[in-house]
Structures are given as structure tokens and as C-alpha cells.
Design a protein that fits this description.
By secondary structure, this protein is of the alpha/beta class. The protein is about 30% helix and about 15% strand. It has helices at about 60-70, 115-140, 180-185, 210-215, 235-250, 260-265, 270-275, and strands at about 15-20, 25-30, 75-80, 100, 105, 150-155, 160, 160-165, 170, 195, 220-225. The protein starts with 14 loop residues before the first strand and ends with a helix.
Length: about 280
């Protein structure tokens, strides 16, 4: 796994896009792809071992997302800064946008921040990530390219002392066009325990990226959570990437079969008028 490393990053370097012109209808995001702390943040007061834990990123999620995107000829948008600096999958008013505590670990470098310091973190990583997603989607819709947004995450086997039995979870809100066929395909697999809105649900405020960029435009979307002990090494990462790629290759959102126009999404102007 990638380990935290000091680096000085400009806002233009805190988000990476792979295959922006991908032909697939799927656009993948990896909101917690990196555990990098830019040099100006030091270690946020944490020992080095904490920066490799799940509190700093989603271990294994990025290699899975990369392999899926490559195989499907899909676009991938990833963060390049640890969520300990700022969580790009949270709204700006969220109390854990810059988390003072992650799980049970206090983050000394995130306490008593001024408004100016918080705004600098937003400008460094949060805004470039979301501006990039918006631009990619807007360009696709402008040229009439069908777009479905999927975010790829990982979760810990044990959280605050409670075991999590699911191998993979699919998170969705009331729009189940993409989630329903994905869940059905996963549930048909032998030996795979599938969580439906487990270990998280949109009520836990983990659905922000999809709400902001897919739901506002009427695009089919879903969130994937893979238990990180399943993807801790290359073998598991390849296994899950290939399994999911096989499903996604034949995945057609519910209702899209009879309503291609809805699956194509709305323009930003139309979406913004309806919010």
C-alpha cells in the first residue's frame, strides 16, 4: 500500500483524472484515494503509523478503481490528499469536513482552526476535486454522452469495536436505478455477503459527492464500499476489480432500458433550477 509521504502540492495537483475521454458510460470517483499530507501540514500531530490507517484514507480502493476504469475504458477522478486534511466527500458545513477526531483518534493538527485555515484547505483540495468532477460531467453531457457516477471506497472490518461481516456494501438513496441491479448481481455470487446501505447509508452523510454531482443532474449513481482486508494486497484488489468489472460490463440501470433520456441526465442549468 501507498504510505504517507510529505509533499508540497498546488491545488492543480491535488486531484488526478485518468482517461478523461473514456468511452464508458461510467465515471468513477475515489474520494479517499490518498493518505498524502502536504509538507505544510507535517503529520497533523499523529505518529507515522496512524497515517497508514483507515482514518487517513481508504486502503485498497484506488487500485480497484484504477483497474476497473482501465478495463472498462472509464474515466477516474481521484483525490491526492488525505482526508485528514479535508474530507472531499463531505459538504462544506459538515462537522467532520476537517475531522478533529477520526473514529476514536484525536487529530491534534485539526483543532482550533481559524476560518482562514479551513478556507485554505477547501481551496487546496475540496474545491479542485469537485470542480473537476463537475467539468468532466458537464463536458460529457454537452456532447450527449451517457454518464453514470460511481464512487469507490473501502471500510474497516471492525469499527469502534463492532465487527462488520459484509464483504462489500452498496450505498444508495431513493434512486435505485444503478444500485438495484448491482446489488442483485452481487447477491447471486457464492460466498459474498452484500451490505445494502451497510456499513453506511446516506443518512451518515457519506453520499455527498454523488448527491452533488449525480443526483442534482438526474444521473444514475451508486457508492461501492469494499471491506479493506479483502483488498489489502494485489491479489484481492485484482479479484474484486475483475469481479466488479464483469458486473459493470453488463450492467444496465433500471428504468434506463425504457427511458434513455433520463439516464442521459440533465444539464447543470436545469439541475440547478430544480434544487
Amino acid at each position: 500500500m501507498e504510505r504517507a509521504r510529505p509533499a508540497s502540492l498546488a491545488p492543480s495537483e491535488t486531484v488526478r483524472v485518468t482517461n478523461p475521454g473514456g468511452s464508458s458510460p461510467f465515471v468513477f470517483t475515489c474520494d479517499h484515494a490518498s493518505n498524502v499530507l502536504p509538507a505544510e501540514f507535517g503529520t497533523l500531530g499523529l505518529p507515522a503509523e496512524d497515517l497508514s490507517r483507515h482514518i487517513a484514507w481508504d486502503p485498497g480502493a484506488l487500485p480497484v478503481a484504477r483497474r476497473m476504469a482501465e478495463t472498462l475504458d472509464a474515466t477516474l477522478i481521484e483525490t491526492r490528499v488525505s482526508r485528514l486534511v479535508i474530507d472531499c466527500n463531505r459538504p462544506l458545513d459538515a462537522p467532520d469536513l476537517v475531522p478533529p477526531i477520526s473514529e476514536t483518534t484525536a487529530i491534534p493538527g485539526n483543532t482550533d482552526l481559524s476560518d482562514k485555515q479551513r478556507a485554505a484547505r477547501v481551496d487546496l483540495a475540496w474545491r479542485p476535486f469537485h470542480d473537476t468532477i463537475a467539468q468532466i460531467i458537464d463536458e460529457r453531457l454537452a456532447r450527449g454522452q451517457e454518464t453514470r457516477l460511481v464512487s469507490v471506497h473501502s471500510f474497516t472490518p471492525v469499527y469502534k469495536g463492532k465487527s462488520r461481516p459484509w464483504h462489500i456494501g452498496i450505498i444508495h438513496d431513493e434512486d435505485r436505478r444503478l444500485a438495484a441491479p448491482l446489488i442483485s448481481a452481487l447477491q447471486r455470487l457464492s460466498g459474498v455477503t452484500v451490505g445494502v446501505n451497510e456499513p453506511y447509508s446516506p443518512a451518515d452523510r457519506v453520499y455527498f459527492t454523488l448527491e452533488r454531482h449525480a443526483r442534482s443532474r438526474g444521473l444514475a449513481c451508486a457508492m461501492i464500499e469494499i471491506r479493506n482486508d479483502e483488498i489489502s494486497g494485489e491479489t484481492g484488489q485484482r479479484k474484486w476489480a475483475d469481479l466488479l468489472t464483469g458486473i459493470f460490463s453488463n450492467l444496465e440501470p433500471d428504468e434506463a432500458r425504457g427511458s434513455r433520456q433520463r439516464a442521459m441526465g440533465k444539464s447543470v442549468g436545469t439541475a440547478s433550477q430544480e434544487r
